[in-house]
Design a protein that fits this description.
Blueprint (H helix, E strand, L loop, with lengths): L18 E5 L2 H10 L3 E9 L2 E7 L5 E6 L4
Parallel strand pairs: 1-4
Antiparallel strand pairs: 2-3, 3-4
């Protein structure tokens, strides 16, 4: 479990995701998500321990995708 504490002033889309998913290949997963009409809200970026991206699926569901992060 990851718990983040903020002052509530996060720039969009941060703080809107309801779920995070660990994936083996972030690039391939983003291609599949876009093919399913998902919109990449936050392009892949490298963080400590892995790469992350934020996507919004049709209907408004927002999720964060992680590659290379041990969960």
């Amino acid at each position: 479990m990851v718990v983040s504490v903020t002052d509530g002033c996060l720039p969009y889309p941060l703080g809107r995701e309801t779920t995070g998913y660990a994936v083996k290949d972030l690039t391939a997963t983003l291609r599949k998500a876009e093919a399913a009409r998902a919109q990449v809200l936050w392009a892949p970026y490298d963080g400590k321990g892995g790469s992350n991206a934020m996507v919004q699926f049709p209907g408004g569901y927002v999720a964060e995708l992680h590659q290379g992060i041990d969960i």
